[in-house]
Structure formats: structure tokens, C-alpha cells
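Q: Can I see a sequence and its folded structure?
A: Here is a first one.
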Amino acid sequence: MSLQKDRRRSRTGYRKRRWRGQEPGFSFEPAFRISIPAPDGKPLNLDKEMFALLAEQFGLEAADFEREFIAGGERFRITDIDPRRPKYPISVERIPDRRGFKFTADNVAMLLKAQAKP
């Protein structure tokens, strides 16, 4: 932007207009979930089925889906495995605020084993 435009805008009180209620960095992303009924009538959880297929490749068990663990004094729940992220394939959510995080498979396996010991 040129110096003249800066001076003109500062004299006239020009400000960028923002949509009401939106702060910089605010975004909205709609998400839709479709439930497919299984033959017995129960809803089929595709996330759980995908986790069961991929869990052994990452050193976890199919039963670890939605299992909770503690890391750094905070509680987390396992929600997904994404094989396209080789360094941090395990998706988890922090339980109090449901914020998503990514963990390494080795770290999650170690934390689950440490928590299982009495």
C-alpha cells in the first residue's frame, strides 16, 4: 500500500470492515455424520470399525477405541487413527474441553500400558 493511501486513511478514520460477531481467526466448519444400520438394527460405527482394522499396525488393540489415559496431568480419549500421518497417527481429544490432539503410536501404547498396571 502506498504512503499516500496510508495518510488518507488515517485522516479519514478509515477502518477495515468486519462481519459482525466474527473475530480474526474465527472459522466455522460444518460436519455431517451418517449412520448406517447394521443387519441387527444397531447403528454401525465406522470410526470404530476403521480403528479395529488399523490398531494392530500401530501397536494398539481394537478395544482401545475411546479408551482414556492420562498424559501430562490431563485426561485424553482415543478417537481415531489416521495412517496418512506416519509421525502422529493417533487422534485423541482432551476430555474436559474436547479439543483434538495428535500423539505418536508408541507414546499412546506406553501410556495405556502404564495406566493398566496397578
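Q: Show me another, different protein.
A: A second, unrelated one:
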Amino acid sequence: MQLLKSACLELTLAALAIAAYVWRSQAALAREYVTARVESGAVAPTVTASGTLNPVTTVRVGSYRQSLLLAFAQLADGLQALDHDTSLVGVQHKELDAARSTQDPTQQSFEARQSDFQRVIEAQRQC
């Protein structure tokens, strides 16, 4: 019986402690909010706080712009190099055609002399 009274007393004290905690929490929350009547007027350009503001997100617009400009400059350089290479290929084709046109008579002359040389060698073998 004594144990039952002790348990009831402990439960009552625990319930009172919980109720006191909840009541104090609600009272503290009620004191945080201050209301005032709305008035219209000029906005004061003063700041009464001090400290440092830190951004949540930092975006570098200049670096994005710079990377685009760099990409376009590299594209322009590549196109100029391609144009230069195309003109070099045209010059090389002209040089190749010129070399072939001088090769034909030289080749024909060589072949004619080669055939004369081979006749001399064959004549010497027969002797």
C-alpha cells in the first residue's frame, strides 16, 4: 500500500513538472512577438545594426563572361588557322602540278636514254 502511495506521489510530481515546463514555454513564446499599429510614412535610410553580412551563394558573372569571350576567341583562331591551311593546300597542289608537268619530259628523256643504254649493254654481252 505504501508503494502505491509512493508511485502516485511520483506520478503527480512528474505531471506537475511537465505542466510547469509547458506553461513556461508557452509564456516565453508569447513574449517574443511584439505587435504595433501600422502607420504610413517615409522610410528612414539608417541602419542601426552592425556586423558582417555573408552571402549564401556567390556567383561570378565576370568569369562566365570571360570564359565565353575566350571560347569565341579560340574559335576565331581555329577558323583562321583552317583558312590558312586551306590556302597552303592550294599552293601545294599548284606546286605538285608544276612538278608533274616538268617530270613528264624528264621521265620521257630518261626512258629514251635508258633504252639506248640497254641496247649498248646487250650489244656488249653479245660480243
